[in-house]
Amino acid sequence: MPYGPVIAFFDEVLEEGLNTLWNKEMSFVPIYESGRQVKQYSYCSLNKYTTPYDVAEVWREAQETIAGVVNKYGGMTGTELSNISHKMPAWHYSEPNEPIYVSELAIDTEEKYFAMLDIVDDMEEMEDDSLEEELYRKLQKA
Questions:
Q1: Which residues pair with 26 in a beta bridge?
Q2: Is the pLDDT reported for residue 127 higher than 80?
Q3: Of 3, 24, 56, 107, which has the fewest CB atoms closer than 10 Å, so is most exposed?
Q4: Rg for the chain (alpha carbons), in Å?
Q5: How many helices (H) and strands (E) in the chain?
Q6: Residue 37 has pLDDT above 80, yes or no
Q7: How far apart are CA 49 and CA 95, in angstroms?
Q8: How would you classify the pairing of strands 36-45 and 22-31?
Q9: What is the C-alpha separation between 71 and 93, in angstroms, rounded?
């Protein structure tokens, strides 16, 4: 990929929910800065009444997340969203094509970002799920 850091596992998450939680649609959108059109994929959530019962709870949580994202960012252009993401410490301090984990995107200051990196470095020997819990606890104090 010729672009900057990429969200780790993003494509896998989208593919996992395809035709279960959402549908994928392709359209062309104008890029006014370059005067051309490019493909853009949209993901539209399925109606809860068509969602299989075994994913109903996941569907509810997904809908809450989608609603929150749409409320906050829905009126912005792709360029505006790109500008916001490029200001995030996780993006700013990552190499091209380096995966960025979703949890890193929740960190909005350099101080917290580097505190998180220090915590992870200190805890690399941990082999169980307590790393995530300890990281969350320590970041709350940062």
A1: 41
A2: no
A3: 3
A4: 18
A5: 7, 4
A6: yes
A7: 43
A8: antiparallel
A9: 28
- More confident of the two residues 93 and 130: 93
- Local confidence band at 1 (pLDDT 50, 70, 90 cut-offs): very low
Q: Is residue 117 within 8 Å of residue 35, measured between CB atoms?
A: no
Look up residue 47 and give its two tokens. Answer: 């109606």
> 3-state DSSP call for residue 93?
coil
Contact 19, 55 (CB under 8 A): no
Structural domain boundaries in the chain: 6-101, 107-142
pTM of the model: 0.47
Strand ranges in 1-142 using DSSP code E only, listed in sequence order: 6-7, 22-31, 36-45, 99-100
Determine which of 4-8, 117-121, 130-134, 135-139 has the lowest per-residue pLDDT on average. Answer: 4-8
Give the position of tokens 């805890």: 123
Contacts of residue 84, defined as CB under 8 A and 6 or more positions apart, other chains included, come to: 73, 76
Which residue reads 């220090």 in tokens? 118
